[in-house]
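Writing this down once: the sequence line spells out the residues, with the fold written below as integer tokens. This is how one looks:
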Amino acid sequence: MVLHEWFQTPPGQYLLDWERAQFDAALVDVFGYHALQIGLPDIDALAANRMPHRWLALTTPPTGPAPAAAPPPPDGGEPRRIALVTDSAALPFAEASLDLVVLPHTLELSPDPHATLREVQRVLVHEGKVAIAGLNPASLWGLRQYRAHLYRSMGGGRLYLPDAGQFIGHWRLRDWLRLLDFELEGVSFGCWRPAVRSARSLARFAWMDGLGQRWWPVFGAGYFMVAVKRSHGPKLVGAHWKAAPVAAGAPVSIANRARRAAAKPKKDLESH
């Protein structure tokens, strides 16, 4: 099952609903001029944002039926349409030209997620922001996926999540962001219900969301991060750190001349 098909299932819709609420709450007050969403047209992650220029970029050409159109954003504009198809590790934007980049499961599906994150750092302006949504391997869903892979290696088993891309733990992603001069503004977790397939079973375990948020938040099936780019400019240093220049051809000390002059009469007396 491909990722687009999985997001039409009950657990996929459950995850998308939570992620949509996270994007709306975190990006509604992010201001600027240019915002870009890379991947996952199933969700309009920029719906609540009010920047005048908002684009959707795909990493692969769309195939099959297009996903259902997202509802219009609160500002009354049109839903985001696919603007371009590009490699996430080679974005066709100038350096420091975007104010916001949104990555809904983009890093998980990228063949080189670290290169994608470096490219995002390049195109963001100083104080620009990146919002990332991903699946948490340290969760009940991640555990079931791991067990399903083991069963499949022995000739059986059925995967719960799509067999596409790779999980990226939130601690690993924190390290990548820190190395690229991003400062983490916030991280949240969600979707603590067990890895069941039907909407009825998910509804039966709805009580686990409140319990998980209170007692084991880091084990949610999904995580959401917002980080801001901090560019370190040149540091001005005063002239006091420079050593005083030594003059070339400095005169000989007067004390040395006097010592040689005093020693000369003594040698003359000894010769007599």
